[in-house]
């Protein structure tokens, strides 16, 4: 008669348990990458989900979403601060839809050991303020079973900027009053933030005193104030300011105007300068 010891029986039992406790992944392992990893609000991000199939799948899908850590303007679900998804990749022709809080890459058919790579591209809303969000993706079989989500890279969002540019317009002279005007245009892509810093003034002093201005300020050699309105992308307009010439003005002077929002990306085009020559208070030329 063959007798097994208790220790040998336990070893066999434990060995059997350990063997089945290390199964292969039930679904393909996903790899996530993002381009770019730092995006300006109003621009697009592309997430790539790739891997190698560990079985045969028909009617599968990959859902893409965001999760903590997130902060700033990116708190909340991915679809709350992004839009306009488009999907691509191989194999097959994937579909692309927005579902609750997520983007779904659908119509996925894979065979065992087949490599795959799918993308979803979406636009971060232009009004999104600075923040970060973590990308995630989850593979679902046709029966909606899943192994759980895969964590991808942290994506940083920077606020959109404006490019407000101003250009000299006309200068008129009437009864010792010089009227200066300049045009502005916001080249975008974002609206200007408020307030707008607005300043005008002649140099050196003694040329003129302020008559009136598009912003409220007291009389003096120059004016500086904040304009509490936003200029939309591609919007344009005209601003005017006036100066009363000094009675005994004589010589060469410069007059400047500056219009500058806090989110301007190019401060080189926010100031205009006129060069003025005064022969008398009645004969002044500004270019």
Question: Which descriptors would you attach to this protein?
Answer:
mainly beta; Immunoglobulin-like; signal; 5-stranded antiparallel beta sheet; 6-stranded mixed beta sheet; disordered N terminus; DUF11 domain-containing protein; 2 helices; 287 residues
What's this, in brief?
The chain has 287 residues and is mostly beta strands. It has two helices and 19 strands.
Give a description of the structure:
The chain is mainly beta. The protein folds into 2 domains: 26-158, Immunoglobulins (Immunoglobulin-like, Sandwich); 164-286, Immunoglobulin-like, CATH 2.60.40. It is 7% helix and 55% strand. It is built from 2 helices and 19 strands. The chain has helices at residues 6-20, 78-81, and strands at 31-35, 38-40, 44-52, 57-72, 82-90, 95-99, 102-110, 115-124, 131-140, 150-158, 164-174, 177-186, 196-203, 208-212, 223-227, 236-245, 251-260, 271-280, 283-286. Strands 2-10-9-4-7-6 form a 6-stranded mixed sheet, with no helix packed on it. β18 (271-280) and β19 form a beta hairpin. The model is unreliable at 1-24 and 216-221 (pLDDT under 50). Keywords: Signal. Residues 68-91 are annotated as: Disordered. Residues 1-26 form the signal peptide.
Q: Gap between N and C termini, in Å?
A: 118 Å
Name the CATH superfamily classification of the largest domain: Immunoglobulins
Radius of gyration: 33 Å
User: H/E order of the elements?
Assistant: HEEEEHEEEEEEEEEEEEEEE
Strand content: over 45%
- Give the CATH class of the largest domain: Mainly Beta
Strand order of the largest sheet: 2-10-9-4-7-6
User: Could you list the spans in which at least 5 consecutive residues all have pLDDT below 50?
Assistant: 1-24, 216-221
Query: Structural class, from secondary structure content?
Result: mainly beta
The count of DSSP E runs of length 2 or more, i.e. the number of strands, is: 19
Percent helix among the residues?
under 10%
Number of domains: 2
Instruction: Give me the number of helical elements.
Output: 2
CATH topology description of the largest domain: Immunoglobulin-like
What coarse outline follows from CA principal-axis ratios? rod-shaped
Which sheet architecture does the biggest sheet show?
A: 6 strands, mixed
* Multimeric organization: single chain
């Amino acid at each position: 008669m063959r007798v097994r010891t208790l220790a040998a029986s336990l070893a066999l039992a434990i060995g059997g348990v350990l063997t089945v406790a290390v199964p292969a992944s039930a679904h393909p392992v996903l790899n996530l990458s993002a381009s770019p990893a730092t995006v300006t609000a109003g621009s697009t991000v592309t997430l790539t989900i790739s891997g190698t199939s560990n079985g045969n799948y028909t009617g599968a899908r990959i859902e893409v979403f965001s999760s903590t850590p997130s902060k700033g303007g990116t708190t909340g679900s991915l679809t709350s601060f992004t839009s306009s998804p488009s999907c691509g990749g191989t194999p097959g022709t994937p579909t692309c839809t927005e579902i609750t809080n997520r983007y779904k890459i659908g119509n996925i058919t894979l065979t065992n050991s087949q490599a795959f790579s799918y993308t979803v591209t979406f636009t971060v809303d232009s009004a999104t303020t600075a923040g970060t969000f973590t990308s995630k993706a989850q593979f679902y079989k046709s029966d909606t079973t899943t192994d759980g989500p895969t964590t991808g890279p942290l994506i940083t969002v920077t606020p959109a900027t404006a490019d407000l540019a101003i250009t000299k317009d006309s200068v008129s002279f009437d009864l010792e009053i010089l009227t200066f005007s300049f045009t502005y245009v916001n080249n975008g892509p974002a609206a200007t933030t408020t307030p707008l810093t607005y300043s005008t003034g002649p140099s050196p002093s003694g040329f003129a005193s302020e008559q009136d201005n598009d912003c409220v300020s007291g009389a003096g050699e120059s004016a500086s104030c904040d304009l509490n309105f936003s200029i939309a992308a591609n919007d344009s307009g005209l601003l005017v300011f006036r100066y009363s010439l000094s009675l005994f003005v004589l010589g060469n002077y410069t007059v400047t105007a500056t219009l500058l929002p806090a989110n301007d990306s190019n401060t080189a085009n926010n100031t205009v300068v006129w060069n003025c020559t005064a022969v008398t208070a009645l004969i002044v030329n500004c270019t």
